[in-house]
Amino acid sequence: MGNRIGIYPGTFDPVTLGHTDIISRAQKVVDKLVIAVAGNDGKGPLFPLTERVALLEDEISGLRTNGYAEIEIVSFESLLVNFAVEVGASVIIRGLRAVSDFEYEFQMAAMNARMQPDVETVFLMASDRYQFISSRFVKEIARLEGDISHFVSPGVSAHLKQHFGT
Fold first, then answer.
1. In a domain, 161, yes or no
2. Catalytic residue at 163?
């Protein structure tokens, strides 16, 4: 390998324990991991792009020194496969939580392969303890003042509580 660059894209709105699990596991299959935070204003993110990048920086600080792949966090607003080529990535890493994720991810991987045949998509199954976590549910539970401590780190939990004024 030597210099295999992988890209793990997402909106990370907010970053969950499921995301950090995939990041720590993806580090073992590439030499450099680019965590690509999508602007994706069409999804109506809760947090602005700069906040999502800052939260990720805090969350992965311990992973930077674990002896596995180097991590870089960047934001992007372009087509994912074009961005992958721009940063020199040969692998797009996608996390799968359940069978319901597969159809969408499979279609996206096929489209990406057609546009950039040199960029492979690799799927990592979510660990069983994180399979059910989604950022959308975490935001809803936090908004309704529920306990999100099993889904996000204490830092992200505090950030959500501050955002919702709880």
1. no
2. no
Domain count, the chain: 1
- Which residues, in sequence order, are bridge partners of residue 92? 7, 121
pTM flag (> 0.70): yes
User: How crowded is residue 108: how many other Cβ atoms within 10 Å of its Cβ?
Assistant: 15
> Torsion angle of alpha carbons 86, 33, 81, 109, nearest 10°?
170
Inside any domain, residue 148: no
Give the tokens for residue 121: 């998509």
What gap in Å lies between CA 92 and CA 122, rounded to an integer? 6
Q: What is the domain range of residue 64?
A: 5-128
Q: Is residue 139 part of a domain?
A: no
* 97 counts as catalytic: yes
Point out the catalytic residue in the list 52, 97, 139, 159: 97
- Can you give the CATH number for the domain in which 56 is found? 3.40.50.620
Does a structural domain hold residue 122? yes
19 in active site: yes
70-126, pLDDT tens digit by residue? 999 999 999 999 999 999 999 999 999 877 788 889 999 999 999 999 999 999 998
The catalytically annotated residue of 43, 64, 143, 161 is 43
